[in-house]
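Both lines are retained for reference:
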Amino acid sequence: MFKKVLKVIRWVLSLTFISTILAVVVYRFIPVYFTPLMISRCFEQIGKGESVKLYHDWIPLEKMPDSMPVAVMASEDQRFLTHHGFDYQAIEKAAEDHLKKGKKLRGGSTISQQTAKNVFLWQGRSWIRKGLEVYFTFLIETLWSKQRIMEVYLNSIEMGDGIYGVEACAEQNFGMEASQLSRRDCALIAATLPNPRRFSSKNPGPYMRKRIGQIEHQMTFIPAFPKEH
């Protein structure tokens, strides 16, 4: 009986492993129209008695302004093009600030980690979810290009209440298509990403306007995002 249970467990683990790889391979080529976060936000809205709001329009990276990936790298992950999914320098710096200066421990998630979390996992801070985030980050860094990771990120990241992706954000908050966004608009969107439901790119306050200037300054040190060959 014990051997049969072990056999079943091995089969389940093998099928799970294979299915995760297949999912990553499939999403290398097809648009990601829905994510676990989008679904959970819809249930949150229903639970609060609100009407469901979900704005999401997938567009290829080529239809986004060149400044958009540069802006999110400047704001969220300046070593995106050189690391392999994990920014060990940022992790080390955060740990050092926490231990030596008593600062609050920061997450330091890279764009790759955020993409893995948004597309394949649920929200939460458990060690199991964090471990799976590491696993999926490794998979997308191995099986996807940097261009694909950025494309999925900019199409799936939460950018406001019920707003997901740069095209929906441009339409809802700027009244235009993403391709029409200016360099400053891109910096403004990037400035909201730590907490897009608190900070609005439609009605930016003094703090947001200050962040825009900081991000635009950092953008001058970020190289143009390379095209995929």
Observations:
- The first strand starts at residue 55 and ends at 56.
- Residues 15 and 153 are 27 Å apart (CA to CA).
- The radius of gyration is 19 Å.
- The chain has a mean pLDDT of 88.
